[in-house]
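Standup notes
- DV: blocked on the single-chain target, sequence here:
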Amino acid sequence: MRILVFQHVDCEHPGSLRQFLAEDGIEWDAVYLHRGDKIPSFDNYDALWVMGGPMDVWDIEENPWLVDEKAAIRHWVRVLGKPYLGLCLGHQLLADALGGTCGPQKIPEIGVLEVELTDEGKSDPLFKGTAHHQQCLQWHSVRVAQAPEGAVILAKSDACSIQAMRIGVNAWSMQYHVEIESDTVENWGAIPAYAEALINTLGQGALSDLKKNTDENMSQCLSCAKQIYKNFMQVMV
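- DV (later): unblocked, structure below
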């Protein structure tokens, strides 16, 4: 088994999920699209993971590779029908690539905030064994405004009605972050676009408070990440 990972900035990698991959002896390859890496042939890969990033799905002039990435996602999910997992930008790209729409989040969701599983989410195989109400790291100013046709909404929050979704039987995505590690907040806080959004939303000095809140919820986040990882691997079999 081998997993292909699309990255859009160096520090937004699979995070804690890397540990679980290593424990299972599963190899994975990162494609650094922001560095100019080309998307490889899909022949040798069993799953596609698409991570977050500071750009928006419509920023194709500044990031022309987004066009090819969306086409690749569409081919992977619709034509090949292979397993897909998208996080944050990866959630938005899945929606955009398959005919949904994304738009500005009226009030950005930044912080450790509650996400609630829908009735469909409670019975979805990806969320089996996870809490129906979860404290998760959020750091986004864009949302999926309209899910693609046929999508099943799996999680929501007061500020964002499409926090997680499933398309068909092979593609899942989440607006929030399940992959966080102890250094995630510090690393992301060094990205200018993220730092600006954090200050604009929560004020000066918010980074230290966000780090503290994340640390306090780290055990729960890691437990949830491990369960979701296990569930994803089971649906791949």
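- Follow-up: The chain has one domain: 2-236.
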